[in-house]
Specification:
By secondary structure, this protein is an alpha/beta fold. The chain has 39 helices and 15 strands. Strands 9-12-10-11-8-1-2-7-6-5-13 form an eleven-stranded mixed sheet, sandwiched between helices. The protein has a two-stranded antiparallel sheet with strand order 3-4. The chain has a two-stranded antiparallel ribbon with strand order 14-15. β3 and β4 form a beta hairpin. The radius of gyration is 36 Å and the shape is globular. InterPro entries: Chitin_synth, Nucleotide-diphossugar_trans. It is an enzyme of class 2 (transferase). Residues 902-924 are annotated as: Disordered.
Length: 1074
């Protein structure tokens, strides 16, 4: 704007159209960005045309016209201080609408008077502005026109934030038109953004195109700008555009990090003052220099400014004065104070961590010409905060050891201390814990069926971890009196109150009364907590036959409670901190479309098998899960630590289908072998989003034995493939229903599953290449030698027992590990020998290694896991060749594979047990529970004919899938190898040395291999880039959490703890679990 002023000396007068063109670019760049973003979002979901778009487009036309006239036509004829401060006057209509909104609200509002004063001050600023300029130039008709246009355009711009108050006014208004308009604005936001962006661009272009010839300027000068002026304009416009976009992004970050006052409001308030200081201070310096040069001649500051602005004194070094100023006037102060009062409510906004952008700001658009005013006025007048949440912690236990059970018990009591029920200041959520024991009963002579578990006294040192009670509290270990376990239709139940008031319900399942194993325990708590406990009170009121209005209100309350009820699925050995739960709650609380969220799972244990899993888990979370989260949805939220929304679980075809009994062979694979992945598949099909939070850490025991690891992956491999194929087969339906699952994302998953399926053949080709490189043998012989061991192992897997198969796989894994070590060292040696790293194998190895190292650096708390990558490299043939063969051939084995027999007690030896308690029959609460149990959880009857049929079907399915799987690998192997031998269809690439000069040697790459490498590189590149994006937002979330969560108080008095009676209950629970 300064460059387009008629008095500037930086640009000649004939080049002013260039400066005006830059102003137009600054105005429309935000509209262009919004247009591109809205088009991108419309690709993910259907965008409807608004029914009431006329009024919206009319206001947008007024705003675009006002912004263009103000910045392009009027402001170039005003001084810098006025230009900076008049932008604060665009809050005039917002202040008026605030008054209307608060007057129409029924409750009393404390911001009514500030809004009234803000409106009066802004109007006073305009009056002073008109008075000062008109009285200063009473005969200058053009100046009067410019001033009038500036005032009128400012009023038009103030229409920009009318939506912020329309929504609030419509709530307290009985107008059907306003309510429908607000609904229309919400449902058709993408299409409205596209239309309004195009309208703004068109209006700005028309005003700019019309004003230049009207002001007797020539557009032709744009094509003949000298290089000096070109650089000046490019730098200025580049700085303006980039800084505006960054200001908008950092404002979002500041709000999401809960730094609203110190990092958002205060800097934006001071922005106008800072700009004025930046421009005025140099003028004061030049003024002092000028006074010195006059040798005592009197001249005041106003006279000096007049001389500079009017250009009357040509002896001044005007080229050094890069702006034209008038001293700040009363209008500037009035406008600034008016903006402060109009946005005073922002200081008292109540918002949550990582608040959604659409909940923070009414519009996605920011104004490049007046960025600070648009950000302040665009912030919602009233941000809705989610009500108190209900979280159910549901753990399933199946033959866990002493130490494993201690992990989850410690975690639960940590959470009890972190969110005590007895302290009323914590209102964000309440929780209740349910632990489900499978196979908890056995036959006892003369006593019916009794608990398998015996009561034991737990060492005091463990209890003190949770309660912080001084050591002198216990003089001796307490003996536990006989306790009563309530008899229930499914077995038994025990209720224990934790030290801080939260409760744990321990459910002991009898396999003769109810179905056992993890999926049926999950179905049990889903129907108990959601199907009965949540719905009971609403169903009771519905049965009373209330009127239609009350029933409609009842349905609204029900939907709200379903959205605010969460289930945290846990395994019996999961170890987690309260912070991890809070971070998962934040994801679901802020984003209503999120049906589930999982955390970063860390495997624990020792030994080579665990070391391999540590790096495997790290890579899958660092790269794969982050990529799924950013560009689509996480496909599997692990059942050991995941938070689910009740509304998502209770959606059509989710909970009901999850409780379906497996009747076909494929269902045994998809439903029972990976229940957590299948549940996520159901959620994704219904349109729910599944997310990943990298800061929510949880620890679970990993298989330490090679055979146990193979059996675990034998379940996971076919189940993963079945669920991914199921999703890919429903691409069209899912991409329409789930806005996060686009067709490009499904293409990404298709390539990922294809790479996984073809992994055995790829490993064989890699081994063949290793033989060729190491022993200088013929490629055909090398390939034969590479495929013989896998073929022999494949045949043996069909003939031998699984235990024998695993032993053979272990021996082969050791052999392949030595081969991988030699191959890795050989690749390094070849790079040194040939003096080049620019071969495909070298580039691939260096690129993958660099990506893993940089990724590990981006996760500083886990950087030590990069050393486990050495074990991972050595185990690649075992993990992607032998394990694939084992899992595919044993697909018909649908047993769990791990924890099938109860292990011995853990390392910690409890004290001698007290006599076993007797169970007591207790009445169950209502018959509804019995009906649910009979319908969904009645034990499956043993039918030998049916079992034999299922076994035959599973073997038949195994044979079909195995044939197709290995036939695809054989075809890929033959096609790739054939093309490698045929030089006529290969791609020739010259080998370059370290100086990027040709060595005279060439390398041949077959087209299929080249495409595969290119595709794999693209896949890893996408994961790498999305990892950076995900890390930034993880950091934002974690900083917001640290800044908002209360710090734990230390050295609490003894009175804060409960009596010894409740400590005995704690001991009882822990010993029962043991």
């Amino acid at each position: 704007i300064t460059l387009s002023n008629e008095g500037t000396k930086v640009l000649p007068d004939d080049m002013k159209p260039v400066a005006l063109l830059c102003i137009g670019c600054a105005l429309i760049i935000s509209s262009v960005l919004l247009l591109l973003k809205s088009i991108w979002k419309s690709c993910y979901k259907t965008s409807k045309l608004p029914r009431k778009s006329t009024i919206v487009l009319f206001f947008e036309f007024l705003v675009a016209m006002g912004a263009a006239i103000l910045t392009i036509v009027a402001m170039p004829h005003l001084d810098i201080v006025t230009n900076v401060t008049i932008l604060n006057g665009v809050a005039v209509l917002s202040a008026l609408l605030q008054v209307i909104t608060q007057c129409s609200a029924k409750e009393r509002n404390r911001f009514l008077l500030p809004s009234i004063f803000a409106f009066i001050l802004i109007l006073l600023g305009y009056a002073l502005f008109l008075y000062l300029y008109i009285t200063k130039h009473p005969t200058d008709i053009k100046m009067i026109i410019w001033v009038g246009l500036a005032v009128g355009a400012s009023f038009l711009v103030s229409f920009n934030w009318w939506e912020n108050y329309l929504r609030l006014i419509s709530k307290s208004s009985s107008s059907v038109f306003l309510k429908n308009l607000c609904k229309d604005l919400t449902k058709c936001q993408n299409m409205l953004n596209i239309l309004t962006s195009l309208l703004r661009i068109a209006v700005t272009a028309c005003v700019l195109g019309a004003f230049v010839p009207l002001d007797k300027m020539d557009w032709n000068i744009v094509t003949s700008i000298p290089s000096r002026e070109t650089k000046i304009i490019a730098i200025i416009i580049g700085v303006q555009l980039i800084s505006s976009a960054l200001c908008h992004w950092f404002s979002l970050v500041a709000c999401k990090m809960h730094a609203l006052r110190r990092c958002f409001i205060l800097p934006l308030y001071l922005a106008s003052l800072a700009v004025m200081v930046l421009f005025i201070v140099p003028v004061i310096v030049y003024y002092q220099d000028y006074r010195t040069s006059l040798n005592g001649t009197a001249i005041n500051f106003t006279g000096y400014c007049n001389q500079v602005v009017d250009g009357r004194n040509q002896s001044l070094n005007v080229s050094k004065v890069v702006m034209f100023v008038n001293p700040p006037s009363g209008s500037a102060v009035s406008w600034w104070l008016g903006l402060l009062l109009a946005t005073l409510h922002l200081w008292y906004l109540n918002m949550d961590r990582i608040q959604r952008t659409q909940d923070l700001f009414i519009r996605r658009l920011y104004e490049g010409a007046f960025i600070e005013q648009s950000l302040l006025l665009n912030t919602r007048f009233d941000i809705l905060v989610v009500d108190t949440l209900m979280v159910y912690l549901c753990a399933t236990m199946w033959h866990e050891t002493y130490d494993e059970m201690m992990n989850i018990i410690i975690s639960i009591f940590r959470l009890d201390k972190y969110r005590p029920k007895t302290d009323q200041k914590y209102t964000d959520f309440t929780f209740e814990t349910h632990i489900y024991f499978d196979d908890a009963f056995k036959d006892v002579k003369g006593n019916g069926r009794g608990l398998k578990i015996t009561l034991k006294v737990l060492p005091f040192s463990v209890v003190s971890i949770f309660t912080n009670i001084d050591d002198n509290f216990f003089n001796k270990k307490q003996q536990i009196p006989d306790q009563k376990i309530i008899r229930t239709p499914y077995g038994g139940r025990l209720v224990v109150i934790m030290p801080h008031g939260n409760i744990i319900l321990v459910h002991f399942k009898d396999k003769e009364l109810i179905r056992q194993k993890k999926r049926w325990s999950q179905v049990m708590y889903l129907y108990y907590l959601l199907g009965w406990k949540l719905m009971k009170k609403y169903y009771t009121r519905w049965q009373k036959g209330e009127d239609e209005a009350e029933l409609r209100k009842l349905c609204m309350f029900l939907q709200k409670e379903k959205h605010n009820t969460y289930i945290l699925a846990l395994d019996g050995d999961t170890d987690f901190q309260p912070a991890a739960v809070m971070l998962l709650i934040d994801r679901l609380k802020m984003y209503p479309g999120v049906g589930a969220a999982c955390g970063r799972i860390h495997p624990t244990g020792s030994g080579p098998a665990v070391w391999f899993q540590k790096f495997e888990y790290a890579v899958s979370h660092w790269l794969q899960k982050t990529a799924e989260h950013v560009i689509g949805c996480v496909l599997c939220s692990p059942g050991c630590f995941s938070l689910f929304r009740a509304a998502a679980l209770m959606d059509d075809n989710v909970m009901k289908k999850y409780s379906t009994k497996s009747t076909e062979a494929s269902q045994y694979i998809q439903y029972d072998q990976g229940e957590d992945r299948w549940l996520c598949t159901l959620l994704l099909k219904q349109g729910w989003r599944v997310e990943y939070n990298a800061a929510a850490d949880a620890y679970t025991n990993a298989p330490e034995d090679f055979g146990e690891l193979y059996n675990q992956r034998r379940r996971w491999g076919p189940s993963t493939m079945a669920n991914v194929v199921d999703l890919l087969g429903s691409t069209s339906t899912i991409s329409k229903r789930n806005r996060s699952m686009s067709k490009p994302f499904m293409l990404y998953q298709l390539f990922a599953i294809a790479s996984s399926i073809l992994a055995p053949a790829t490993i064989c080709l890699m081994i063949a290449g290793s033989f060729t490189f190491l022993f200088q043998m013929d490629a055909s012989i090398a390939l034969v030698l590479a495929v013989i061991p896998p073929i022999i192992y494949l045949v043996l897997c069909f003939k031998l027992k699984s235990e024998t198969q695993i032993k053979i796989a272990g021996l082969l894994s050791i052999m392949y590990a030595f081969l991988m070590l030699v191959v890795t060292l050989s690749i390094i040696g070849s790079m040194v020998k040939e003096n080049t790293i620019l071969t495909p194998s070298s580039i691939f190895v260096i690129a993958i290694s660099s990506i893993y190292i940089i990724t590990a650096i981006m996760h500083p708390q886990e950087i030590q896991l990069i050393f486990h990558g050495l074990i991972y490299i050595l185990a690649i043939p075992s993990a992607y060749l032998l394990l694939s063969i084992y899992s595919m051939v044993n697909m018909n084995n649908v047993s769990w594979g791990t924890r099938e027999t109860k292990p011995a007690a853990g390392a910690v030896t409890p004290e001698p047990s007290t006599p076993q308690t007797r169970t007591q029959k207790g009445r169950y609460q209502v018959d509804t529970k019995k009906n649910l149990q009979k319908k969904y959880l009645e034990p499956l009857q043993d039918d030998k004919e049916r079992q034999q049929k299922i076994g035959n079907d599973l073997r038949e399915l195994r044979n079909k899938v195995t044939f197709a799987y290995f036939m695809l690998n054989a075809l890929w192997l033959v096609a790739t190898f054939t093309l490698q031998l045929s030089a006529a269809v290969s791609i020739t690439i010259p080998i370059l040395d370290f100086n990027l000069k040709p060595t005279g040697k060439n390398i041949q790459i077959d087209p299929i291999g080249f495409m595969f490498i290119t595709g794999f590189a693209t896949l890893v590149g996408i994961q790498f880039l999305t990892m950076f994006y995900h890390r930034i937002y993880t950091l934002i979330h974690y900083v917001a959490f640290l800044d908002t969560e209360p710090k734990e108080e230390k050295n609490e008095p003894k009175e804060a703890y409960l009596s010894g009676k409740k400590v005995l209950k704690l001991l009882l629970l822990l010993d029962l679990l043991l």
